[in-house]
Structure formats: C-alpha cells, structure tokens
Amino acid sequence: MGSTDSKLNFRKAVIQLTTKTQPVEATDDAFWDQFWADTATSVQDVFALVPAAEIRAVREESPSNLATLCYKAVEKLVQGAESGCHSEKEKQIVLNCSRLLTRVLPYIFEDPDWRGFFWSTVPGAGRGGQGEDDDENARPLAESLLLAIADLLFCPDFTVQSHRRSTVDSAEDVHSLDSCEYIWEAGVGFAHSPQPNYIHDMNRMELLKLLLTCFSEAMYLPPAPESGSTNPWVQFFCSTENRHALPLFTSLLNTVCAYDPVGYGIPYNHLLFSDYREPLVEEAAQVLIVTLDHDSASSASPTVDGTTTGTAMDDADPPGPENLFVNYLSRIHREEDFQFILKGIARLLSNPLLQTYLPNSTKKIQFHQELLVLFWKLCDFNKKFLFFVLKSSDVLDILVPILFFLNDARADQSRVGLMHIGVFILLLLSGERNFGVRLNKPYSVRVPMDIPVFTGTHADLLIVVFHKIITSGHQRLQPLFDCLLTIVVNVSPYLKSLSMVTANKLLHLLEAFSTTWFLFSAAQNHHLVFFLLEVFNNIIQYQFDGNSNLVYAIIRKRSVFHQLANLPTDPPAIHKALQRRRRTPEPLSRTGSQEGTSMEGSRPAAPAEPGTLKTSLVATPGIDKLTEKSQVSEDGTLRSLEPEPQQSSEDSSPAKGEPSQAWREQRRPSSSSASGQWSPTPEWVLSWKSKLPLQTIMRLLQVLVPQVEKISRVLGVQGESPILRFLQHGTLVGLLPVPHPILIRKYQANSGTAMWFRTYMWGVIYLRNVDPPVWYDTDVKLFEIQRV
Which segments carry the region annotation Disordered (predicted)? Predict the structure, then answer.
C-alpha cells in the first residue's frame, strides 16, 4: 500500500530515533512529523519497519525519546478527534499514529518501570482541553488516548456516514454530535442499518485494534486470583467519562450479531466478493469480550424483575456495576433484542457446520471462541436472556454447534480451552429445568460428526458426544469428566426416552469407571460412579415409562451393579487392583462399547499439528466449587441446600492448583505410603462404598430379572424385541423405594472461573492476532506460550 518513498522516509525516521542519544525536543515538529505526516504506511509496513529490538533499545537507552514519541502520537489523535478529520491528510495522520501506537504499546507494558507512564499526567494537557498549564486538571495520557479513540469511532466521513445533506452545510460539529444517531448497525436499540462502507469498516477496525492493544496491559500481569483485577484502561473506557459508551457498546454488539458470512444467502458468493466485514466483526467481538471481563462473583450483578417499555435498556433496576458495558448488557430486556442476539450468535456458531454440507460454499469464520465467551457473558450477566434462550427450542441451535466443537476438538491438545468453555456453557444451561426438557426434541439435523449413528433426540446426541470425549479424548481432559457427568445428572430427570445406542454408552461408562483399578487409583475417581448411579436413579424414578432401552441395558449389565455392591475393601484386594493398573495404563478401554460405524462424511477428530502454538490456562476449580446444590421441590422451584458441614470456614477458595478442602479430607486417612503419594486404605474405601446409591437399581433388578429370564426361556432366542415390548408395558409403581428429591448442581460464579476466563480470553486474542502479530514475542505474563 505505502509507496517505496514513504516507506524509506519512515524507516529513516525510525533509524534516527534509535541512534539519537540526545533527547529530541517535543517542539521539533520537523523531526516528529516524519513518523506520520508524509507517509502512507500500512499497519503491516509499520510492524516490518519498526523491529522489536529497536523499540526495546530506545526504551532502554533513550527513554525520553520513546516517551515523546508516544506523547506526540497521542496528541495527533486528540487533534484529529477535535477537528473531525475533514481532510485526507488528517485521516492519514490519525491512521499512521494509530498503527504506530499499536506497534509500540506492548513494549511499554512489558516493562514494569514503564507501566505507570500512560497514567501520569502530561504538563499542558488540561482536562479543559485549552492547554492551560493547570496541572491539577491535567488528564493522564491514557485517558486522553481512550477518549480520542472513542470520538474517532464516531467521526463523520471517517468511521461513520455523514448526515449532511449538502456540501454547503457546515461540517458536523464533533462536540455536539449525538453519536446515538450514528450507531454502526441495526439491532439492539437501533432500527436503521447504514449503507455498508468498506473504508469506514477498515478505519474502525484499525482504531479497535489500537483500543484492544490499550486493554492488553492485562496480558503483562501474572494471573493472581486476588488482584481484584480491574483493568484501568477498560475501567476508564467503560465509565461515564466516555460519552460514547452506549452507542459504542450497541455498535459492537449489533455489528457482531448482524453479521452474515454466507454473503446474503447466495452460496459461493464470498468467492466473488472479498468480505471486508469479517475483520471488523472479529475485532468488535474481541473488544466486546474484553470490556465485559468483569468478575460477576465479586460485584452483585443486577437481578432483573420489573421491565420497562420504551427503551432498549431496562431502567427499573438498581444501578448495577460501574462498568457501563456490563451494565448495559445486563439491562437488555426486549424479546426482539434477545431474538436478534440469539439468532445472530447461533448463525455464526453454526457456520463451521455448514461447511460440511457444501464444502467452501460459505465463508468459514474463525472467531467461534470469542462468540462462545460472548454467549457466556450474556447468560451470566443477564438472567432474562438465559431464560429467553431456554424458553424455546432455539437453545438447540447453540447446543448442536457446541457439541460439534467439543467432539471435533477432543483429540487436540491445543484446543483444551475451547473444550472447557463449551462444557462450562452446557453446565450453566443444565442448571435450568427447561434445558433438560428441550433436549427431548428429536435430532434430525445430520451434521457429519465422528460419532456412532443413532436415531433419537438431542439428549442422545449430548450423551453420545460426552461418551466419545471421555473414552477417546486426550489425557488433559480428565478434569472435565466431573463437569460432563454433572451436566448429564442435571438433565436426567427430564429425559423421556433414550436410544439403545445411548443406553449402552452410559453403561459402558459405568463399567469403565467401576473397575477396581480405576476406583482405587485416585482419591476422586469414585465420584464418577456416584454421578452415573444418580443418572440411572433419576431416570428410573422419574422417567421409567419411556426408558425401556435403558432398563434393558441395566438388566443386561447387571453384573456391574453386583460387583459394585460387593466391592472388596481388604488390603490384599486393593493391592492387587493397583498392580493390575500398572500393567494397563490405558485410561478407559473401548472394549465392551460397540463403537458401530461413524456417521457418513465425518472425519475423525485429529490431534494438533506438531508445532501448533497454544497458551497455558490456570487450573479450574473443582466441581464442588463450580456448582452449588439445589433441591427441586414439588412445584418445580429450586431451594439451595446448605453446604455440607465438612466444608468449614477454612475452606477458602483454593489457589491455583491447590486441592479443595473436601479432597484434602479424603487424602488424610489414606496417605499411608512413605513416598507421600496418595494410596487407598480399607477405611477410605468403606467410607464411600457404604454411601453408593444402589437401592433403587437393586430393587428394579430383583423385580424384573426373574420376569425377563422367564420370557427368554419361553420364547427361546428371539433377540431383544419381546423383552423390550414387555419392559415398555411393565410398571414398577409401588415396587420402588420412595423417589428421592431431584438434586441439581447449578453453576455458581467464583473468582477461580473468572481468572480462568481472563487467561483463556487473552490467550485466544494473542493467538488469533497474527496479521499484524501485535503481541507476538513480547514478554507476556498472564500465560505461557507453548508448542504442542
């Protein structure tokens, strides 16, 4: 883009800056203007012509010159915002300064000594903007920069359409302009969709990239759960100081949710037209999730009761969080707004699935991880949105893509974060009764997935995918097993009819998890058996009638339940079980699970390509921290159960990698081995074996097995259909123990997950910004960059 001349001049200026040992005066315009006035350099040029080593050299050897460069570049942006950027030259200066700051900022953040630089005041930059030397009033450089970016994002003829009728009209006054009339896209709170404009989209994108770079200071601080962790850049930008907060929030949200990568519904259209909207949508999604990085556990998010009509935002509520973006998000309440947001996110999440019908027919988007974070934030901060999502079967348009991503990423070490966020979203949804009810809808969409073919409902799809993750995912997914099974427990009381394929998968999991070597090889493993027994009990007690397939599978595999009831607890048996484990390190065998053929057109889940970059994640809290137990009463309302007494007050949230109190309790009586390694003891096995909830299943077997055996004897070997027919019409009314109350484990916000989301989100942003590579090779502290 830039001509060779302007590139040479720009490079010459950079060399002068790195070689000058004397400070250059801020008033020396002839020198400073070389960086932005006469050049037309693309952002890629700026990254190529300003090497990292030279930025660091200036930072170390002539710090005052780096300070002046930043100060002068911000000053130019402020001037552009003040004047309204009418001439092409002014627009070019603003873009050049924006690119230069995007290049330099990460090197300022990586050095702790420089961290306060942007928050120090600059003499002469009064808040009144008159330049009077009143230091009381001076604004920190960061504030001036952020306000200039906000103004420039609503600058007529630069980033938004001008509303002037004719050229005779005086230029729109930037200061009196009501930016709510210039929202970028129709949707929430705005009905008018402006004419698409390639140049405006590109200019917005550059400014958003600079904004994201400002916010990225968070990447240079190590993960600390107690840091209260408000990002000063985000805090200021999303405060009442920014008069464009509402229109900008709305512009970002609407730009993302209105985007249709298919190209107006015409297949292959994207091959004819380059889609300049996608980079803007991607940038908007990233800025949006960063501004919404707000620990909901630490501040009461407004609970929603009364609705008001007339405005898009609900005004009836308490003021809510200081962060206006979080505040606005939590107060959206109109049905049509919810519909617009949900349809938009579902359309974009389903995009990679469309690829599989007509390969290359639509443009494949890459920002599904950002969309999942956005969806999570919406559900977490706006309970009305969550209820809206679950009110109709539209929730399945979110569920199917999530299951597709989970299944596709299960073997790929570099996509552990994607696996976690998908599971977290399903855990959040599964805490609501409606989710379980919706899963009964038949599954007819045939997205090619590497899973066994089945005929059934969305519940079958969910369980079959979870089985696949547990039995053929990689080792690093083991911490998610508790979460996966908790989701199945939460929905189980509402599942009307599981297919035979699914019933067999559930029993295969029970078989795998109840082998003695698995039960005795880690302190937590028996929890998985408890979860599965809870699933069976819920279905038998509450949905017996439609679930003859599951009942039949339980009868066929009855030996597993008898083995559990007779689990050995003597030291020699424990020792023998662990010996067996040393010989078969395979975590879960596939044997005994009739895999069946995978769906037509599906590709097996592939591991990461060697050398793929990934970012490290902090440990997630255990399931007892992630969820809170609630009991469903007769009328369907939930009441929270008091936490069990053993979780005393000393059970503060465990720091990174530290086990929870309950887990330490379990370790104590058993840590008998000298090496300090955990080892199981008879007392430990007895302590939980006595609590296995086997009564309902044993009673079922006691009643039904003799009848089933009789049918088999009378009819000979006629396969399973007569038995299934008998079970379909059978009843156990009055024969089973009194139904237990339904227990739901609802997700609860906590600082551990807030920290996990922060590291995950910034890791995604780091890896996805490769052109230009904004943060690449800088000294980030929030996570480590690893190669697979």
Answer: 297-316, 572-681
